[in-house]
Queue: 2 jobs
Job 1
Amino acid sequence: MISKRDELLSGFLVLAVLAGIPWWVMRQERSANAVPDGANVHVINLTAVADGGIYTFEDMVGHNYWRRRPVVARPVVRVGEKVLFRLRSADVTHGFSIPELQVGPIYIEPGSVTEVRFEPSEPGQYLIQCTFRCGGCHEEMFAILEVLGPHGEPFPEDMRLKLPPRVKCPLRDC
Amino acid sequence: MNGSPASKGIDLLRAVPGLKWLLTRRWFQFAVVLPNLAFFYFFVIAGVFGSPVGSRNISIIFVWILWWFLLIAVMVPLASRVWCTVCPIPFFGEWYQRRALIGVRVGKPGVGRNQMAGFNKRWPKALSNIWLQNFSFLLLCTFGVALITRPIVSALVFAGLVGLATALHVVYRQRAFCSYVCPISGFLSLYSMCSFIEIRSEDPDTCARCTDKACLAGGDAGWGCPWNVNPSKLDRNNYCGLCTECLKTCTHDNMTVRARPFCSDTRLKGYDEAYKAFIMISLALAYSVVLMGPWGTIKDWANPTERGRWGGFALYASALWALALVIVPALFYAASRLGRRFAGATHVPMKEIFLGFSGVLVPLGLMAWIAFSIPLILVNGSYIINVVSDPMGRGWDLLGTARFPWTPFYPQSAPYLQVPVLFIGLYYALRSGDGFARSAFGAGPAAAKGAAPVAILSTAVACGFLWLFVG
């Protein structure tokens, strides 16, 4: 026989599960991404992807990793700004280094967030490179960090960086 | 040989205090399914929105490492189809059909005495077997390496199964999805024959005298058997989903849960069941080669999502289907035919001999799967410690163990566990073959001669596994 009270209670429990789990996931995600001094820091989220050998701003998760190749990131910061790179890997262990700024090299392990902080002092373009052999595109896994002047002034032309052309892993989306 | 309503065992409802009270509560199944539903739902979310890296995603580690090991090595041997008791896949479909999560509806329209929503159509007779389950499982396992390594593939399969189950519950009566479609249900039905427990009637005479048949038709106290089997006539575990409704509905208090000897059910009743046994042993063999063997090329072929070798995958898939559907059945047919000739029993129909001897693959297959799963849990089990703390591979650290390093747990002990497990499987296989030979050819030398070819083939299969596991 049907007890209205039992059915209501059990229905409520099911709804609590269906609504509660996404809520809990979002809450955990927010707290994991929280930066204590976030207001004073320029936070840049980068994900390293072995397929294509790129760093991207896009959050590579289950549903989008297999659908398309993400767009290559070109982070822009300003001189004197406190910069925090929050680095993830979408697949394998990668490396991260900006040699001219003495940032890294460090490992980016899949399934965790690796943080790097620095404060650029000179405007210009700087090479970001993977320092851990991550796959067939490793040798071409570069990105450019643009450092503008303290008020957003463009950097001098002679500081422009030219990346070697990609041969093994040409870019499709940019 | 088969368990029967009259078979003896330990009546667990009497032996375990409180068990009968628990199993006959209407809220029991809801209470065990709800937490499982929560996990399952979370696994889908983790597969879609979590890390694409399998070893960092709970949907892979908990399902294909932990759940799989618990299912095949613990749940099925010890508790038959207890997974079906707690399975969340048919939850929404059943909720729709019953329009109740705990209570029972009586009246029309419906099935038996129970009022049920939906079209309540009968499942087509031509599909009232496990052929669909055989093919769906084989298809799923053909893409198995992608399934067990890619969280999104797992999530899509989980969500797809829930969607399909719900749709079939709307159209067809009771648990048609579980009985005839669910790919997991097929092998659970086969290997539950080996389980230590069974649900049976306590006294067959009471059932014979019963005019009420509430266990089948339902009543005020519970739903008629959702698996559409007649609980009073259960003589094998295969199609009993342990939903415990018959314990609740029986007006004579004549249904019980019994502990019994391992592999008490030995007979396969149709080609669909025999083919399930062939498919399962073939898959165990193929997975042992792909996942544990030293052959990198075959590994690449089996997982086309890794390097896109679709030509190699076509070759791998063709070989797998040929092995499961042609080569292994043909070998068993040949061995059975030889056995019949050696026994001088050409008057016994070949179908009976073939099905009878195919039963040897039930204990052998179960034990081969357990042996296959042992190194998986030993080698990869430490990932469980990571993912409980960071279930989506997003950089969380709920329990402080997210960075626990991958640590194989005594992998060198795997062969010492695998070998005895395989030998136990072979022992029960030989016993099953011998038992069938005695019943088909009579006791004495004829039975021994009749059983010999299948015994040799079973031993060869076990040796093949031994070679793959320990070299």
Job 2
Amino acid sequence: MQLAMEELDGGVTKVILDGRMDIAGAESVDLKMNVVAGSKKFVLLDMQKVSFIGSMGLRSLFSVARTIKSRGGKIVLFGPDELVEKVLKTSGLDALVPIHHEFQTAIAALQ
Amino acid sequence: MTLDRVNTNGGEGLTLRSQMSELARICPWIEYLAKRDAISEETQFAINLCLEEALSNIMRHGYAEAPNCEIEVRYSMPQTGVFLFIIEDEAPSFNPVTALEPPIPVSLEDSTTGGQGIRLLKHFADTLKYEATPTGNRLSISFLSAAGMKR
């Protein structure tokens, strides 16, 4: 799994995940995710290219969201595909971290 | 694709060592089966998810991360449109079918506990059946093709 970052206007950081967020994938981006959680305050997590997510991937997302929130920040999940979104909803993460499929509404949720 | 021969009651399968790196063998195997047996993308996703959760639980908890134990995964199509995976291990008895799921977290602060693996397994499998064996556990997970699936 790959992780890339892009700074957007308004202090928003777009974090782009690409690949399978299985056990190996989640471990491969764990350090970078922790850095994001500890240093960025308004995060749009772009999941359009995430093809799979399991419980370790969920754990990583919960952890990042928890840290960002504890620092007074906000995070949204952007564009997960239908199957990935089913996993997010099964876990209950969608009730705690908003999921958006329109870019502008995702950005607005971070303001 | 080379498959391990599993000399049991038919079907085909893999024998995995109890190391997380072995999980990397699952996805390409499922891709191969999907092409050959016309398994839909959605069902393929569910299979990958359930196998990863079940197998990682066995490795992490059942075998307590001991690296040289074995887990057998057998596959068969008992009838058209039904994809059956049977996982057998020699770990202490554990029945994921009756295992309690922790409650869904109501806040991010509550989300420190695990347990999502069992929840995902139960939600994404079409049927789950557990049997204790003389030496360990047998978990049968089946997935239905698009017609009649519950997902």
